[in-house]
């Protein structure tokens, strides 16, 4: 069983993924058994540098985190935050262990489930980046992006509340309204393209099929650790 | 700010402590700001070796975990599980960075709050070990240990449910009954001497003052990281 490294950007996202990997592993390896796991994270405030230097800064932080994880013996790495995958290719050139791309893993599941019209939710950076368009470009599925106003709403819910573990009833209602609107427009599924979104969106909240990037990434990491 | 290492025994315990440190740090350092943090854990099944070799095995696992954390740059380490502190002294002789002892930190708070008669809850190993008696030996406070039957109940709730993140209503009721009995016997406070117990015991469940070893350890780590 390979040693999994988790490059943490937010503690909430890393903790959810870490716990998910350990509990889902029990189904594969038996009670109380999971791969060896290391997590490393700088202060989240470091990643919040959203100025013109942000891509360079993110690359630097991720390379340093992944090198630290390698020093613990980690043989593969995941980053349970979607946004930083914007620098995936540049970082991969500078590290020595494989990094599983979260959007590629989501695309594999979407293809397998044959979803056709998929709503993407995430931070403003995920909406603006090529992370999901790149991962889905070889698929027939259409990716639907929320309106500018909705993007601002989703982004601020994530950054102001969810990353600090705050789950409010008003936020849930806002998300429910948004999902319902897109369901009426023929969308069949939604990508929770932010590790913290499962805190607020589940099967009880929407009729759309859910592509939970956190669980998909966790499952992919377990599979990669087993091979 | 010093880099904190977390030697994980259970994913639940480590994740709770990790999230607590990050959210509590915001009060000290400002929004989204926390110390650099590394976590390392072997499979929990490795720690479940409860045979005659367990003390030797625990020492070995903790020394290896702490060395891996040191390799990431961690400057101090905590272990958010009470039980393994049984080998605290032996491990400290074999590592290069300071390890904050969870029971010593709980004792400091108990002394400051002037609690007099304190119920200890934890796994069977914590009940049987000298971890808390040693930490409290210089204090006037009396440590009360549950009956043999109650010890078995608390231990199995932790090992069979809480470490896997399962919180049942029947378990809550059982704990409420136990705490109420000791409150009637003059106990003034309870040590949650197991990182997972806060999942099930909070102020709403009992009139006893709560010494939450997880939060106390997290606060101590933040303080140590700041000095």
From TrEMBL, chains A, B:
| PROSITE patterns the UniProt entry points to | ASP_GLU_RACEMASE_2 (PS00924)
Q: Which GO terms describe its molecular function?
A: amino-acid racemase activity
InterPro entries given in the database record: Asp/Glu/hydantoin_racemase (IPR015942), Asp/Glu_race (IPR001920), Asp/Glu_racemase_AS_2 (IPR033134), Asp_race (IPR004380)
Keywords from the named record: Isomerase
Keyword Isomerase (UniProt): yes
- What's the domain of life for this entry? Bacteria
> Could you confirm whether the keyword Lipoprotein appears in this record?
no
Q: Which Pfam families match?
A: Asp_Glu_race (PF01177)
Q: Which family does it belong to?
A: Belongs to the aspartate/glutamate racemases family.
Q: What is this protein called?
A: Aspartate racemase
What species does this protein belong to? Pseudoalteromonas phenolica
Instruction: Give the source lineage, highest ranks first.
Output: Bacteria, Pseudomonadati, Pseudomonadota, Gammaproteobacteria, Alteromonadales
């Amino acid at each position: 069983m390979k040693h999994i490294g988790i490059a943490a950007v937010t503690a909430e996202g890393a903790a959810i993924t870490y716990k998910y990997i350990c509990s889902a592993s029990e189904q594969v390896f038996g009670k109380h058994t999971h791969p060896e796991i290391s997590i490393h994270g700088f202060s989240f405030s470091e990643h919040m540098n959203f100025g013109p230097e942000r891509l360079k800064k993110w690359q630097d932080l991720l390379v340093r985190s992944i090198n630290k994880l390698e020093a613990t013996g980690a043989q593969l790495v995941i980053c349970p935050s979607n946004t930083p995958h914007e620098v995936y290719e540049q970082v991969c050139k500078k590290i020595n262990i494989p990094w599983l791309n979260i959007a590629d893993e989501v695309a594999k599941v979407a293809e397998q489930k044959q979803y056709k019209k998929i709503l993407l939710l995430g931070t403003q950076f995920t909406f603006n980046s090529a992370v999901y368009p790149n991962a889905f470009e070889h698929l027939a599925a259409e990716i639907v992006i929320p309106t500018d106003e909705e993007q601002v709403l989703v982004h601020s819910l994530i950054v102001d509340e969810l990353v600090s573990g705050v789950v409010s009833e008003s936020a849930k209602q806002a998300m429910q309204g948004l999902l319902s609107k897109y369901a009426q427009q023929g969308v069949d599924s939604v990508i929770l393209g932010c590790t913290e979104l499962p805190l607020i969106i589940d099967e009880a909240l929407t009729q759309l099929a859910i592509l939970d990037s956190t669980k998909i990434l966790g499952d992919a990491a377990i599979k990669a650790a087993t091979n």
